[in-house]
Amino acid sequence: MSLPVDETSPPGHALRAGLHHLAVETADLDNCVAWYTDFFGGTAAWTLDTFSDLTRDRLPGITRLTEVVAAGTRFHVFTRSAAYARPHPDTLQFQHVCMTAATAGELRRWRDRWQRLYDSGRYVFARPEPPTDIVVDDDGVSSFYAYDVNGLEYEFTHIPAEAEGR
């Protein structure tokens, strides 16, 4: 099934959208930004502490937002004032986000990096659980799951057919 055609586009051209950023709410901005920059190997690009009316309406109580640019992705890590109740820790805001690795070796390095950062003791984890083992399905797709410092679940996967351009 194709996306609706934009009336201003030439016939047969569907609308397309790319991922700009992933927004991550956290109770501890400094801990979260440090973990995202260390784990994903990125940098904190900018920080805001003033917001538009639209942002304040959509995210009541937002106090600070930092963009972390890493692994080809932008993460908008933000925190709200204590006056705004956070969801219960067992309430997930998304089920998981899947990140791709170019090779099976890179996939192993992502898992090893997560474990090294966890073992360092520098971060507080809402769900102090180790990453899963790497599993390989019948099609040769390998993956593992791990939680960020907030308890949000990430899947890391290597799909050989996509890496080969099929």
What does this 3D model show about the protein?
- This protein is an alpha/beta fold.
- Helix content is 23%, strand content 27%.
- The protein has four helices and eight strands; from the N terminus they run βαβαβββαβββα.
- Strands 1-4-3-2 form a four-stranded mixed beta sheet, covered by helices on one side. A four-stranded mixed beta sheet has the order 5-8-7-6.
- β3 (62-70) and β4 (73-80) form a beta hairpin.
- α1 runs antiparallel to α3 (104-120).
- Mean pLDDT is 85; it is low at 1-6.
Radius of gyration: 18 Å
Mean pLDDT across all amino acids: 85
Please provide the count of β strands: 8
Distance between the termini: 20 Å
Q: Which consecutive residue ranges, at least 5 long each, have pLDDT under 50? A: 1-6
Strand ordering within the main sheet = 1-4-3-2
Largest sheet: 4 strands, mixed
Return the string of H and E elements. EHEHEEEHEEEH
SS content category: alpha/beta
The rough form would be described as globular
> What's the helix count?
4
Strand residue percentage:
25-35%
Protein name: Catechol 2,3-dioxygenase-like lactoylglutathione lyase family enzyme
Organism: Streptomyces demainii
Short description:
The chain has helices at 29-40, 53-58, 104-120, 160-163; strands at residues 22-25, 43-48, 62-70, 73-80, 97-100, 135-136, 142-147, 153-158. It is of the alpha/beta class and 166 residues long.
Keywords:
Glyas_Bleomycin-R_OHBP_Dase; VOC_core; disordered N terminus; 166 residues; four-stranded mixed beta sheet; Catechol 2,3-dioxygenase-like lactoylglutathione lyase family enzyme; 23% helix; 4 helices; alpha/beta
